[in-house]
């Protein structure tokens, strides 16, 4: 356990680190990449350029400091980080690299204010958190490798099929090169793919598994990120997959990971509501197919909000599911529909997903909610469901950025 003195010092210095948070984390990443370039492949360069990883780290440091005497408050955050780390194959030997550069950055940014006592306290606090994460990550690695068809590290997969889902989304069906069995996974989880960057290094990206578990293939459905200027350049990996990957191409793939998944242990008697914004439909498609197959008596409501029908993925798939399952209620919500609002028996309307639509689709029924999409969409859903007094434990969402971004839209 942490000493009382360490807890006292960390909490006392938290406001200072928060004030200098972005400066500190920018310095930290620049320092680490300069002193330890071997860790570069573990980081998303686009997020680095946009400042997203710096902001996320600053948020995490402040949250840890604020809750260091009540770490139970950070349980969900620790699980998210541990799942992300294992998806990237972060190992115990990487933690000293991060710790050394973080402590050096605190001293270099704060100068004489960072006394030896403060550095020692933060060193103890970092080591304590590192041990928690290393322990949890070891459990995840063992679980992924021990299930039938499971593996650790990267496994080579062949692109067996490439299917266009919309003008911007393409699905890739992946089968093991070794022709061995595949593990089951929890609907909503993601895999990590590793690709070369052309400069002798590699980079990794996580993509949700967009189909229910099966024994023959894994499927990811990738939106091509065309970019929107300097602050949002074109996505390197998404364009590589769309433009260069063909049937027969080989990808390095890490095992399924993620803490956002449809929990079979929850009460199946309670209705299930799945709400997707744009490409956020990918993990929800896996959940939708699994729920309809495994819980045929459970009422399932599915809502997909997107720009228009041209960019909408899986429209026909949802329509087909609706004809096959009487317990499915579905609705498409378009910001700028390009066609008459009709959808083969599925409701369709114009606008944002709002209170009125939720009242119409769900009413006052007690339900479990799973939602996924861009940050503004998540913030809006978070606000709408809180206004409807949906309990925290019945709200589940996929989010990788600093949680302050959600608050900013509240």
Write a structural description.
The chain is of the alpha/beta class and 410 residues long. The chain folds into three domains: 4-146, Orthogonal Bundle (Globin-like), CATH 1.10.490; 155-257, Translation factors (Elongation Factor Tu (Ef-tu), domain 3); 272-407, Nucleotide-binding domain of ferredoxin-NADP reductase (FNR) module (Rossmann fold). Helices cover 41% and strands 19% of the residues. It contains 13 helices and twelve strands. It has helices spanning 4-19, 21-35, 45-50, 52-66, 75-87, 95-110, 116-146, 236-244, 281-294, 315-324, 355-361, 375-387, 404-407, and strands at 155-164, 169-176, 190-196, 202-208, 218-223, 250-257, 272-277, 300-306, 328-334, 347-350, 368-372, 395-397. The chain has a six-stranded antiparallel sheet with strand order 4-3-6-1-2-5, with helices on both faces. The protein has a six-stranded parallel sheet with strand order 10-9-8-7-11-12, sandwiched between helices. Strand 7 (272-277), helix 9 and strand 8 form a beta-alpha-beta unit. Helix 1 runs antiparallel to helix 4, helix 1 (4-19) crosses helix 7 (116-146) and helix 5 packs across helix 7. It starts with a helix and ends with a helix. Mean pLDDT is 90; it is low at 400-410.
